[in-house]
Amino acid sequence: MRVLVVGGGGREHALCWALSASPLCDALYCAPGNPGIAAVATCLPVSAEDVDGVVAVAQKEKIDFVVVGPEAPLVAGLVDKLAAAGIKAFGPSALAARLEGSKAFMKDFFARHNVPTAAYGRFTDTAKAKAFIDAKGAPIVVKADGLAAGKGVILCQSIAEAHAAIDTIMTDKAFGAAGNEVVVEEFLDGEEASFFAIVDGETALPLASAQDHKAVGDGDTGPNTGGMGAYSPAPIVDDALQLRVMNEIILPTVRGMAAEGHPFKGVLFAGLMISKGVPKTLEFNVRFGDPECEVLMVRLKSDLLPALVAAVDGQLKNFDLRWHDDVALTVIMAANGYPGTPQKGTVIEGLDAAAKIEDVTVFHAGTKADASGAIVANGGRVLAVTATGKSVSEAQARAYKGVDAIRWPGGFCRRDIGWRAVAREKQR
């Protein structure tokens, strides 16, 4: 098969890394890709958000199968346009992608299908949103309705903070049109986990669990980001909890989307809050998470490509996936200034030295080559240094050994990725 991956971040590097190993993959392309991806795929200079451009290049290169990485082209209808051109693509239709594209749609869908989630209100009027906050009290969560690159969620400890968040999103338009509507919801306490399932419209196949670290600073301090690191499996997601998540969250969603005439195909990614063994849904994403994809791909023992094709063809009921027992952990190295305005163009050295460390893989998330061929930062989250080990502690130590081999004064990372699981291991 001739395969095209759409996107140019760490998730897409991990997907290309996995797909390049498939005996079914004759030729691998990525649009637009990045310098790391260029080692395993042919990069094409087409933006992931240029829907018509991606369709045109898929036709030109006689692509058999497209894997769409980021959420924006899914919400914009890329899979629909590829299907109209006769090209198979892994990912949901635009109407199914509303589960991520509109938090208001998602929350109303949860209400219609009894999917457990936080109590909420949705507003297009700032005064009504603030009145709802006054009535509910704090802590409380304010979310931009639309896509905001993982940054449109503000956790507010006081009513004043929540009012300011409404102004930031709706009046100041910090996230553009994504903030034309807001969702205000109760604050859920507990431990977060990321739960993934591949879905073919009817059948859902659970993937390995993972835990992301959203806050920018050690100890989960500071503003939310797109994710500063992750590890898999997440110890909190045991067999009993997985069964509960499938029966109470994933399968009701799959059945509900089919019943409403928009069957879901692709990756369903539930962000969960778990309190006293009870899972509630914080949000749905309609693609592989980033940085969770990096740890899932290095743990996946099975060939990824047939699983994705089976989802598109509606054949998952006869499918299974196998995983390595080892733990995988990834540390995100971000550019100084992130999650605000990141400092771009700073030179990164030592990538080869890091990659030579046993059981360490460096995925490129936001890099480019400058005129001299040097690798420089070209985004907020720039590298995903990923390692495996027999325990979280071992994987963590290896990942940070990889981080320390990289010479990049223009970047930073958290030094405590996996801290909850490491603490659990020490208690044993």
Brief descriptors of the model:
globular; Dna Ligase, domain 1; single chain; 428 residues; D-amino Acid Aminotransferase, Chain A, domain 1; 32% helix; five-stranded parallel β-sheet; Rossmann fold; six-stranded antiparallel β-sheet; alpha+beta; 4 domains
Mean pLDDT: 95
CATH topology type of the largest domain: D-amino Acid Aminotransferase, Chain A, domain 1
| CATH class bucket of the largest domain | Alpha Beta
| Content of β-strand | 25-35%
Give the overall silhouette. Answer: globular
| Uncertain runs | none
The counted number of beta strands is 23
For this structure, what is the CATH homologous superfamily of the largest domain? ATP-grasp fold, B domain
Number of H- or I-type helical stretches: 14
| Class from secondary-structure proportions | alpha+beta
Cα Rg: 21 Å
Number of domains: 4
How far apart are the termini? 47 Å
Instruction: Name the helicity range.
Output: 25-40%
Task: Describe the protein's topology.
Elements: E1 2-7, H1 10-19, E2 27-32, E3 42-43, H2 51-60, E4 65-68, H3 71-75, H4 78-84, E5 88-90, H5 98-101, H6 103-112, E6 120-123, H7 126-136, E7 140-144, E8 153-156, H8 159-171, E9 182-186, E10 191-200, E11 204-206, E12 211-212, E13 215-217, E14 221-224, E15 229-232, H9 239-259, E16 265-275, E17 278-285, H10 292-299, H11 304-313, E18 327-335, H12 351-355, E19 360-364, E20 367-369, E21 375-377, E22 381-389, H13 392-405, E23 411-412, H14 419-427
Parallel strand pairs: 1-2, 1-4, 2-3, 4-5
Antiparallel strand pairs: 6-9, 7-8, 7-9, 10-11, 10-16, 12-15, 13-14, 15-18, 16-17, 18-22, 18-23, 19-22, 20-21
Helix pairs in contact: 1-10, 7-8
